[in-house]
Amino acid sequence: MIDYHVHTRYCGHATGEMEEYVRAGIEAGLAEIGFSCHYPYPEQFEDPPPDCVIPAGKFGEYIEEVLRLGEKYRGGITVRLGAEFDWLGPEFSYHPFECARRLGFDFCLCSVHVVDGVLVDYTPSVLREGLCRFAGGIDGVWRRYFETVARMSAPGWCTTVGHLDLVKKFSSHLELAPRQDHSQIIGEALDRIAASGLVLEVNTSGWDKPCAEQYPTWKIIEQAVARGIRFTAGSDAHAPGEVGRHFDRLKDIFACLGVRRLVRFEKLQPLEFEIP
User: Fold this and answer.
1) Is-contact 237 245, C-beta < 8 A?
2) Would you call 181 exposed, middle or buried from its count of C-beta atoms within 10 A (0-12, 13-18, 19+)?
3) Sheet holding 199-203, edge to edge
4) Pair 83, 39: CB distance under 8 Å
5) Distances in Å between the alpha carbon of 234 and those of 39, 115, 132?
6) How far apart are CA 29 and CA 52, in angstroms?
7) 208-219: per-residue pLDDT in tens?
8) 2-274, superfamily in CATH?
9) How much of the chain is in helix, strand and coil states, percent to nearest 5?
10) pTM of the model
11) In whole angstroms, what is the distance from residue 112 CA to residue 119 CA?
């Protein structure tokens, strides 16, 4: 198996040295580990809270450390270089795939965390405070979130769409649970991903969050399979002990839904492999 969603202390909100993550990947029996620390925000973007992304001045150091570890552990595990890019809207300048190509990345993961200035996955209180900005409250948040995911999922924008339904993270809180059926807008986002040829991440961190299930839901994975969308796997680890977490459960889901192959990346090229 592979784990293509791994953060480190460089992001400011994860713990542990990068080498500890690599060793954890080896102990978990992974064939590949992909570092995906948060890419620096553009200069003109105001950080929602501090310590969300790698500071621009530290990003070169992060790249150097990934490459060093790749050489050191060659033959034991493949270490992939990547980053997680936030969709911040068309008014901000960076283009994830072009940044990734220029920096020699293996993959680039794109995700939505901020919707109309509101962080949807930070804390329940932050999300509650932001509901007033959306017509329809939490259902308005969900609509805008999936509209944003669909807009982000353009051809050539990234390699991978991360934790597709992250907006559900706090839905175990009654006032943050949607009342309406959002299957149509979710389906439109999936149609866009399929048409763009992007890979969809199945992210196991949700089992350790209030929503208590993987991102995305079983039903969404099933709908993605029906559309011919390909998948990769990520733990969203923020500590070495979280590398490869719940991957046995993940493999069971793939087996039940008839998913036999996943996608890994090398220099932005998707390469399929059989799930062991």
Assistant:
1) yes
2) exposed
3) 2-6, 32-35, 78-86, 107-111, 160-161, 199-203, 231-234
4) yes
5) 17, 23, 33
6) 29
7) 999 999 999 999
8) Metal-dependent hydrolases (3.20.20.140)
9) 40, 20, 40
10) 0.94
11) 9
